[in-house]
Predict the structure of Large ribosomal subunit protein mL62.
Amino acid sequence: MNAIFTKYRSNTLKIFVTTQTIARNTGYKSALSLDKLYPQSSLKLTTPTKPSTSQSPDFSGYIPIDQLNITYSRSSGPGGQNVNKVNTKVDVRFNIKSATWLSDKIKSKLLEKFGSKLTKEGDLIFRSDLTRSQQLNLADCLEKIRNSIRVSLFEKPELSPETQEKIRKRIQNANRERLALKRHHGAIKAEKRLTDHVEL
């Protein structure tokens, strides 16, 4: 009986070792492995090559990280003991006037839009502690910078004369209704005061 068990155990071990060797040699990877889903992905923070500005001459979305002043600090709020150990809060600042990656038009628009939020040195600061990850918070800050630039560059389209006339009429009608309602309430109050005076 012991001999049969020993032989069975030996054969099972050989099959297991052979299977592991074949798997190691063939290097099988699932179709859902990360390197197949994201072949160009990298967790390293790098500054990509500046894209072409032919489609968007004012701002392409490119932000050179090496020209930003990035600092990390402790995040506030819940997060367990890890929140007190890792600097996940991100502060990104840059000087608008000395930023070589911004055009003069963008600089003037940013100064006009966010001039009251600048520091004494002329730096514009963006903060993020949205997640407990440095890289995700840094990405959030960069997206905030992009959105701020796009908002400052946005110009309201000019309204046609017909549209302006419609808006004027709507405002005029709203004011008439408001004044009519105000006069109606005033008449009701005056009538109540008169009734109370007669009763006295």
